[in-house]
Request: fold
Amino acid sequence: MRPAAKMGLAGILALGLAACSTNTFKADVSRFQAELPAPAGQSFAVVADDPALAGGLEFALYADMVAAEMAKLGYVEAEPEAATMLVRFDYGVDNGRERVRTTNTGYGHFGPWGRFGGFGLRRGYAFGFYDPWLAGPEVRSYTVYTSDIDLKIDNTVTGERLFEGQAQAASRSNRLQHLVPNLVDAIFTDFPGNSGEVLRITIRDDGKSVKPAR
Reply:
């Protein structure tokens, strides 16, 4: 390979690695609320909205994340029977759906037979050499998973529903240990938000952005 070509390839690889090093997570967040009480004198307890999750170690891990966010707002954690608010929390991820992607649909600068002309060769092969930049269309399939969390806050004295919210994301991962913390981060971004508003929350290594979802 010529030095100039090597430098070009090195630049391409560096750009690819830089793109991979940036962690980006996008979630659509919808929230509805009555007037939440001021934090002064108010306490909360995080409980499982799905009884099947209650008492589980995994649920406890995620519940602690929700509790930490509530504490940042000024509310005090308490036992469920003593709390003035119950925070009902649920999470999950579906079984995924297959998507198909077609890439490299062009033939580069040398046409569909590579730089050496015809000879019945296909997909960029020329005398045993395969150049991906000269290849024809490549079809790949991959799985997309939809994950979500639900958050509901009730007044334990009156039974009034104070808040309902959901954060949902589509990604190529089904690992709840990665998904749930990001979804919790998203739903508590600018909490409690404007009632009825749906936002796209983008979480990156270098910060977050918030904009209306389309």
Q: What stands out?
A: The CA atoms of residues 94 and 149 lie 12 Å apart. Helices lie at 3-21, 57-72, 176-187.
